[in-house]
């Protein structure tokens, strides 16, 4: 396509730089696979998601530099194949895990074409315009890849232990009920246990209760608790808070009525996570562009990169 770049690629120094970019990109990509796998399939906190996100931004920068530095597709495909092999080694086997890497590979190939097309259409080299024009493809590739892995993980977890899903949901609802206390009657506190609630009821309605012995009080409260649960068709114990008793019973009814749609829960969860990731994708794009600028200018100053005037062939309509 142009002799200047081909001659540079025959230069040993240029070949070494290209190899360094490729190896660096592959190492960071493998690190991204490992941290993503640990986040998705391990017991990591939500804050740990920041680690693979930052590594992914660094990988896209190195990957983009490698694409811009080479015009021979064979080197790109070698690097792409190495990344796919490392992914298959690190991530657990599964149809959706494999489908994710297939779509990711196709979009990565499209990213190569997008960057090369943007390079041809620029009169002057602009790193910002290259990233701005191509990042959408790579961001969607990563989101879809994570989506297939999230679906695989949640569907397997739900299949093996569906009770854990309802337990987490009930715990979340229990934590939210006390926030509604301001709209409830003044004497009703959802944070109090059933025994505490019944004790207050006895003290306010039966003056003789305070003079009863501890054993008699305990028997009265236990009997009243059983009657309370039976009357309202609830399940629990005297040590459970009123919020927990209500939520547990509520979740039991949901679980019994959701048998026909259980299989859709992993899909709903995955789509929710993908929508959240897509909403904040612009922050990831900004982070990638910042990393790109911070890395490019020092490397250009050290003459690892150089901007050269080259002749470009373009397609033109003729008659």
From TrEMBL:
Keywords: Membrane, Transmembrane, Transmembrane helix. The chain crosses the membrane at residues 14-34, 46-68, 75-90, 125-151, 267-296. It comes from the Bacteria. This is Uncharacterized protein. It comes from Candidatus Doudnabacteria bacterium RIFCSPLOWO2_01_FULL_44_21.
């Amino acid at each position: 396509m142009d002799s200047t770049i081909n001659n540079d690629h025959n230069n040993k120094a240029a070949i070494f730089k290209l190899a360094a970019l490729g190896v660096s990109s592959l190492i960071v990509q493998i690190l991204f696979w490992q941290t993503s796998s640990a986040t998705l399939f391990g017991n990591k906190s939500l804050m740990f998601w920041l680690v693979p996100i930052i590594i992914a931004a660094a990988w896209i920068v190195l990957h983009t530099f490698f694409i811009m530095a080479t015009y021979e597709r064979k080197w790109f495909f070698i690097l792409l194949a190495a990344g796919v092999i490392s992914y298959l080694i690190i991530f657990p086997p599964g149809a959706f895990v494999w489908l994710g890497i297939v779509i990711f590979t196709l979009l990565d190939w499209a990213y190569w074409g997008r960057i090369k097309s943007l390079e041809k259409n620029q009169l002057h080299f602009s790193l910002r315009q290259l990233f701005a024009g191509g990042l959408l493809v790579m961001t969607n590739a990563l989101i879809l890849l994570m989506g297939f892995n999230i679906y695989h993980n949640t569907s397997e977890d739900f299949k093996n232990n569906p009770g854990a899903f309802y337990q987490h949901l009930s715990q979340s609802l229990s934590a939210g009920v006390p926030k509604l206390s301001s709209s409830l009657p003044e004497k009703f506190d959802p944070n109090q246990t059933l025994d505490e609630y019944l004790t207050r009821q006895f003290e306010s309605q039966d003056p003789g209760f305070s003079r009863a012995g501890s054993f008699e009080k305990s028997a009265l409260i236990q009997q009243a608790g059983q009657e309370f649960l039976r009357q309202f068709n609830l399940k629990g114990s005297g040590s459970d808070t009123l919020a927990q008793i209500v939520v547990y019973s509520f979740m039991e009814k949901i679980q019994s009525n959701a048998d026909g749609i259980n299989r859709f829960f992993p899909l709903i969860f995955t789509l929710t996570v993908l929508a959240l990731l897509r909403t904040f994708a612009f922050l990831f794009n900004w982070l990638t562009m910042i990393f790109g600028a911070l890395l490019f200018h020092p490397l250009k100053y050290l003459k690892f990169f150089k901007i050269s005037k080259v002749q470009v062939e373009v397609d033109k309509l003729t008659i």
